[in-house]
Amino acid sequence: MKKGFLKIGAVIAALGVMTAAFAGCSTTEGNDSSNGGDAAGTTTGKINVCSREDGSGTRGAFIELLGIEEKDESGEKVDRTVATAEITNSTAVMMTTVAGNKQAIGYISLGALSDDVKALKVDGAAPTVDAVKDGSYKVSRPFNIVTKEGSSNPAAEDFIAFIMSEEGQKVVEEEGCISNGNNGAFTSKNPTGTITVVGSSSVSPVMEKLIEAYNAINGGLTIELQTNDSSTGVSSAIDGTCDIGMASRELKDEEVSKGAKATVIATDGIAVIVNKENSFDDLTSEQIKQIYIGEITTWDELAK
């Protein structure tokens, strides 16, 4: 009886070694397409398209710049982003999503770019401040602050004067955005009270730093920052529920007709991002469009 158990145990052990050996071959990273790579190290498999939510200024600018938004037969603009795209509701969530998915592609503000993801070249140009400035990197958009035409708020006006000053635009550049010039040195009128700034999650990081720098000059004014999306920032400025809106896109005609007034505080590139382990470094703008409208669905198609 004891010998029988020993023989059975030996057979099970042998089978275990064989199973482990086969398993080791099938799960070696780079040979398994589910890991996003082939034997040569090229990323393969289904592309996981990530986009921003409706109302996001980054999404609005991205789909316009890449031709993902097109006019239909009636002349209406239609967003052709593939229906299966994973929707992220902020820059931070987009970064986390792409960083955690080897098959993913997404887009974020250039100023928010970090080493957690890889930024692709677009049409051969890397997403850098210099490339946006000289026009070689064409995926860029304005950062706007929005107020209502004809409204007057001395406290908000003082903060806006700081943003557009030499000191404010220095903060803009320190945060990786591109200044379009400044109005010279700032002298505060030292207003007090509270104002509210609402809108784009792309503009929010630089706005946070602008608030800190302003409060170092005038600590008597409380500036409350609420982050959501560009459309909310614009509509809140129009209806008076905030003092300053933030929008990472151009204003729409209907928003302007309702009294929205935009002031460009910076220019920002939009970086197209993939997972750090992705083998691709450069895509054309046409390839990115085809990915986002569903004409290209796998990384294999891009490697041909």
UniProtKB/TrEMBL annotation:
It is found in: Cell membrane. It comes from the Bacteria. GO terms for biological process: phosphate ion transport. Keywords: Lipoprotein, Palmitate, Phosphate transport, Signal, Transport. It is a lipid-anchor. One of its GO terms (cellular component) is plasma membrane. Residues 43-167, 190-301 form the PBP domain. Residues 1-23 form the signal peptide. InterPro entries: PBP_domain, Phosphate_ABC_transporter. It holds the Pfam family PBP_like_2. The complex is composed of two ATP-binding proteins (PstB), two transmembrane proteins (PstC and PstA) and a solute-binding protein (PstS). PANTHER family: PERIPLASMIC PHOSPHATE BINDING COMPONENT OF PHOSPHATE ABC TRANSPORTER, PHOSPHATE-BINDING PROTEIN PSTS. Belongs to the PstS family. Part of the ABC transporter complex PstSACB involved in phosphate import. This is Substrate-binding domain-containing protein. It comes from Merdimmobilis hominis.
